[in-house]
Amino acid sequence: MSTRPAPPGPKLSPRRVEWPQAWRVIASRYPVIDLFERVSPDPAVWDVLIELEQLTNPRVRDEVGAISLVPLARQVRGPNASWVMAAFTHLNPKGSRFSDGSYGVYYAADRLRTAIKETAYHFERIARDSNDPARREDMRVLVGSVENEFHDVGTLSAAQRSAVLDSDSYAASQPLARALRAAGSNGLVYPSVRDPEGQCIAAFWPDVVGRPTQERHLKYDWDGSRVVRYFDYFLHEWLPFGN
Predict the structure, then answer these.
(1) How many angstroms separate the CA atoms of 142 and 25, rounded?
(2) What is the rounded average pLDDT of the residues 180-194?
(3) With pLDDT > 90 as the criterion, what percentage of the chain qualifies?
(4) Residue 86: its pLDDT value, please?
(5) What helix, strand, coil percent values describe the chain, rounded to 5?
(6) Burial class for 147, CB neighbours closer than 10 Å (0-12, 13-18, 19+)
(7) HSE on the CB side for 72, CA within 13 Å?
(8) Rounded to the nearest 5°, which phi and psi values hold at 204?
C-alpha cells in the first residue's frame, strides 16, 4: 500500500484515514487468484503470463477479470492481493454508489457490523431483483489496514451530503465519484448509509488500501424477501440481522 496525498477535489476536503482494521465482506465463492505470483517477482512478466494464459483458458479469464482496467503502476501483488484486485477487474455493470459501472471500487467499513449491514442490504436487492427463492449464501470476511487520504463526504454541505448518501438513488454520488477519480483522488470516506454508527471507504485504486487477510466466514439466510439472520462461523451461532 502506497501513501498518496489526495489532490484537491470538487467541493470536498481530504481526510486522513488510519484504520488498523478495515472490514470487507464478499461471497465465499470468489477464490484467491494465485496463478503467477511464484513464477516471477516482476509485475510486467506476471501480466504477460496472464495475457497468454487467458487466450486459451476461460477459467483464468473469469477469475482474473479485466486486469487491463488497472494501470500497471497501481496494481498490487503478493499474497491475498487478488482480493483487492478483484474489486477493480470484475465490474458490476449496474454500478454502485460510487461507480457508474465503468470502473471498480473497493468498499470497506471501519467495523464488522457495518460491513455486514452494507453487504446484506445489497445482497437482498440482488436476490429480490432475481426473484430468488429462500436460500443461503456463504460470505468471506476480509480485514486489512487503511492508511491514506480520502475525500471526505462529511465536508459537503448538508444538502449535497444528503443527495450523495441517498438511501436509494446514486444520481448524485456517481457523477461526484467519477469527477474525483478523474482528478486522481484515492477515493471517498463517508458515513455508512445502512449503519448510522459506521464509516466506510470507497477506494478508487488497489494501491491505496492494504492487502487483507481472511478473518472468518458468515452465512446469510435469505427467506425469499429479506435477510433475516446470519450464521457467524467464528462464534458458531445464528444472529438476527441488525446485530
Answers:
(1) 6
(2) 96
(3) 67
(4) 87
(5) 30, 30, 40
(6) middle
(7) 8
(8) -90, -10
**237 residue type, one letter:** E
Q: How far is Cα 4 from Cα 17, in angstroms, rounded to an integer?
A: 12
Give kind and range of the element (H or E) at residue 84.
helix 81-89
Q: CA angle, 149 as apex, 144 and 150 as ends, to 5°?
A: 90
Q: Cβ contacts of residue 147 below 8 Å, gap of 6+? A: 1, 3, 17, 18, 19, 210
235 with 229: CB under 8 angstroms?
Answer: no
Kindly list the distances between the CA atom of residue 182 and the CA atoms of 7, 68, 121, 148, in Å, as whole numbers in the listed order. 11, 17, 29, 18
CA-based torsion, 115, 89, 151, 78: positive or negative: positive
Give one DSSP letter per residue of 160-207, joined into a string: HHHHHT-SS--TTHHHHHHHHHHTT--EEEEE-SS-TT-EEEEESSGG
Contact 165, 98 (CB under 8 A): no
What is the per-residue pLDDT for 71? 87
pLDDT above 80: residue 91: yes
| 147 in Cβ contact with 15 (< 8 Å) | no
| Predicted TM-score (pTM) above 0.90 | no
Spatial separation of the C-alpha atoms in residues 160 and 181, rounded to whole Å: 18
